[in-house]
């Protein structure tokens, strides 16, 4: 019903200054699978750490929120990216300026949320006090930015509106110890309103004022033992014992209210007036404070838009400084994001894994070179646990970090900007929708193939492992062919697989190159070197991994025996093939053209 809709309608919209459409072409396209698989914001496991936890060194809540937005919406314009990374570079070289701004950001709090609460009329006195202090801290941040020898940062400083008039109004109106609730009182400073000050004086000096009336009446009447009391029937009263009543005349303006056996009780106009003031003072104080507070909030309403702009500038500055701090702490370098179709990363590292390495152990860096012209698809083979998946993910994370304006975990990098980032990694099922692990894998892969571009970066990890070996090899093989031969887009692809048969693709397609993650066999042990080198790998060392996991010795020995038998059978089959015109895997269907 329309009446129900109207009751839900929020008519307080002053904090919404504009509504604009997100221009997708300005941002790197990330689907939900990629956001999940790369663990950008949330870990996939309880013990996991997302990327944002590593690079988030922000001080303010609004900076933290903006960082999350940047991570999910990387830029594609090299010029815009360069503007951000240049500011990051400045702060890495001027860390004292960064620390001074951080000091002031700590005093500001969540300026963005505060001003939204003001416009919604849901702000409390303590929050208005925080807003005033925040506006004071902004003044110091502007001074720091305006002294910087950097055009972009200097411009940010000049864009800050000091909101001097409203800042001074808040400072002169709201008490330093203002409570959260307006009803608790002591919100407005002394000297703001004369009547409010008088009422407060009455409350704080009520006993003293009553004694003054008692003394004045005693002196006027000569009644020495005059007492002031209070009851719920007629309030404050003067009590005169019979002894003094008979000796001294009672003034005509005294009104007798009660007669006792040995005394009489009276009220006077002065006493009644003071009583009314005392009893009504609390209520009137609250009324005055509510009115003054409401008028102040109305004045702040006129500053919603400039304060929102200030919050945006501060959030941006906070994130830029966060990038600089992360770069200094983790030894990141400034990337060169450009218009080329090449990704050339030297000594790249996984930003999350390297932060979890045991003390004294170093992450093994790797080079990555991808180009639409010569190394379009890197076919990466290698043993289980050798680090293939880490290399895939680190490449994607490095590109993403570069395109949000951050420095990156590498010694250098030239990155032709990517416009879409796809991942097909891990294995999971979707029981609630009745989808198997393999079905989920195929759905995600189909989504990739239906959205690729020449500037896409694709990570494919163990495609086809959710089905039988030959089905898996067939799908993985044809997928590589399709990506290589697609006439409309040849996306750069990292293809990790344990199907060693796919090494044959290098000999059939000019832009598919074989790589493997190296290992060293020492006796019966395998050492994972985690170094990416050219050429294919012929061993998975799956049995060795099973042994490392603590599988029973008898099972391991039996596995090795079966493996030996299977390898012998393959050799025998290959010998028979030489005598037969039929070829099994090498005689593949014609590739996509």
Question: What are the key terms here?
Answer:
Rossmann fold; four-stranded antiparallel beta sheet; about 600 residues; single chain; MutS, DNA mismatch repair protein, Chain A, domain 3; alpha/beta; about 50% helix
Summarize the structure in words.
The protein contains 21 helices and 15 strands. Helix 20 runs antiparallel to helix 21. It is elongated. About 0% of the residues have low confidence.
Offer a concise description of the structure.
The protein has helices spanning 2-8, 32-37, 51-55, 61-72, 78-93, 95-108, 111-119, 125-146, 151-159, 164-173, 194-204, 206-221, 242-247, 269-301, 304-330, 388-403, 437-449, 469-485, 505-508, 542-548, 553-578, and strands at residues 29-30, 227-231, 235-241, 255-259, 263-267, 336-338, 342-348, 366-371, 377-381, 412-416, 420-424, 456-461, 492-497, 512-522, 525-534. By secondary structure, the protein is of the alpha/beta class. The strands form three sheets. It has a seven-stranded mixed sheet with strand order 1-11-12-13-9-14-15, sandwiched between helices. Strands 2-3-5-4 form a four-stranded antiparallel sheet. It has a four-stranded mixed sheet with strand order 6-10-7-8.
